[in-house]
Amino acid sequence: MALKSINPADGNEIAVYQEMSNNEVYTILENVHTAYSDWKERSFSERAALMKNAAEILRNNKEEYGRIMSLEMGKPNAQAQAEAEKCALVCDYYAENAETILADKIIETDASKSYISYQPIGIVLAVMPWNFPFWQVFRFAAPTLMAGNACVLKHASNVQGSALAIEEIFKKAGFPENVFRTLVIGSGKVQNVINNPRVKAVTLTGSTSAGKAVASQAGAALKKTVLELGGSDPYIILEDADLNRAVSACITGRFLNTGQSCIAAKRYIIVESIRNEFQEILLEKLKDRTFGDPFEKEIDIGPMVNIQARDEIHKQVEQSIKKGANLLLGGFVPNTPGAFYPVTVLGNVSPGMPAFDEELFGPVAAIISAENEKEAIELANNTPFGLGAAVFTRDDEKGEFIARNLLEAGVCFVNNFVRSEPRLPFGGIKNSGYGRELSAQGILEFVNIKTVYIS
Questions:
Q1: Across the chain, what does the average pLDDT equal?
Q2: 3-class DSSP string for 280-301
Q3: 113 Cβ partners below 8 Å, 6+ apart?
Q4: Does residue 455 surpass a pLDDT of 90?
Q5: C-alpha gyration radius of the chain
Q6: Dihedral pair phi/psi, residue 421, rounded to 5°
Q7: Active site residues
Q8: Domain for residue 250, yes or no?
Q9: With 192 labelled, which of 151, 295, 336, 442 sits at a CA distance of 20 to 30 A?
Q10: What is the reported pLDDT for 40?
């Protein structure tokens, strides 16, 4: 089977990659295991020096890596280059903090000495998506490698160029040749990799259905998983919110990466008394937003990842309108080559519509009215997802209380758009998955937390 990379801006084929055979995959896993046996004995300072090298390579070559991302999945090029820089940040964070996080922790007990030791477990398999083709990989790989584990990557089929470029970055940085490897395989071969005894754990970022499948397979093999899945993030706008600030955050949070993000601001929940004003400001700011070639500096959004994804979101828009939503902006399929879809806003959205109930993975925002603060919070939590959420209010104390105690999500922001960053844990609840990436919590997911007790 061949894996194809198609440029979503024009539909042209970029490259074709021949899928690895089962024997090739097996050989790679054996080689990675051999590399791990040496890598786990390296000191933190040795690992950190190489991780710093990787960060430098990312920064020095952000134009090259940004071009790969923009070609393969359509990300606006400025955002693609910024993604490479963000990957460098996560490399730096773990290079500088892993040793401290994983230092032995003395625990006072009846023993003469007792402590917790954090030790590597072996090979970790990552099943990664196309939407942030570098960032999703580095936020797994940096902590995993710094902990002394080895990595194998099964990337999305359409971003094999990104996958192989990342492997090359680690080689150029001086990492042992087989401590990070890319498996050029389709989803049909993932279960065999999970079942291989050399693989000790699995992390996946992707859809809820993909997460359930991998979790089931890994569970049957008694292997730990971390799952970062879909989202339908609510942004609550309260009566006392700074509307210009709230609208700007809502726009960034919704349309970054052409709206193709698990933590995008998918549902704007507005207290009814300010809905019209919010809506007017929003539409005024969005009316001139343009789509086009991701390498053009003037465009605001690029193409969606492929025609199928574009057609699916248009179907969700049309079905929501049939059920009573109002089309306020966009909502049409452009008569141009490529997988383009315009900035789209739906008003009068309510439960029972795809725009409320489902994840909208593209440049479509849903405006939902709430009678008051209480109903706004209820609507926000009325979703099977629980990844991110935000609340906007001039009362910081109230905003913090709502974020901390009332919103059902793993990542909650006040007066800003939701995003991930290396120093804070990231992950969801409910159908958005489990486990955490980034920060101290992220590196602790794939280590043996060992108790040592000396009488």
A1: 98
A2: HHHHHHHCCCCECCCCCCCCCE
A3: 106, 452, 453, 454
A4: yes
A5: 23
A6: -150, 150
A7: 228, 262
A8: yes
A9: 442
A10: 98
Task: Examine the domain organization and report whether 98 and 175 are in the same domain.
Answer: yes
- How far does Cα 2 stand from its chain's mean position? 26
**pLDDT greater than 90 at residue 443:** yes
- pLDDT per residue over 353-408, tens digit each? 999 999 999 999 999 999 999 999 999 999 999 999 999 999 999 999 999 999 99
d(C-alpha 248, C-alpha 95), whole Å? 34
Structural contact between residues 56 and 91, judged by C-beta atoms closer than 8 angstroms: no
- For residues 450 and 408, membership in a common domain is answered with no
Query: pLDDT band at residue 1, thresholds of 50, 70 and 90?
Result: confident
For 245, residues 6+ apart whose C-beta sits below 8 A from its C-beta are 392, 415
Whichever domain contains 157, its CATH number is: 3.40.605.10
Q: What is the pTM of this model?
A: 0.97
164 three-state secondary structure: helix
Q: Domain of residue 186: give its range.
A: 2-229+430-454
Residues 436 and 389 in one domain: no
Judge contact between 75 and 405, C-beta under 8 A. Answer: no
> How many domains does the chain divide into?
2
Residues 72 and 177 in one domain: yes
Neighbours of 437 (CB within 10 A): 22
CA 452 centroid distance within chain? 36
424 in any annotated domain = no
CA 417 to CA 250: how far, in whole Å? 7
In this predicted model, what pLDDT tens digit does every residue of 211-240 receive, in sequence order?
999 999 999 999 999 999 999 999 999 999
**What dihedral do alpha carbons 79, 387, 234, 431 form, nearest 10°?**
130
Q: How far apart, in whole angstroms, are the C-alpha atoms of residue 341 and residue 294?
A: 13
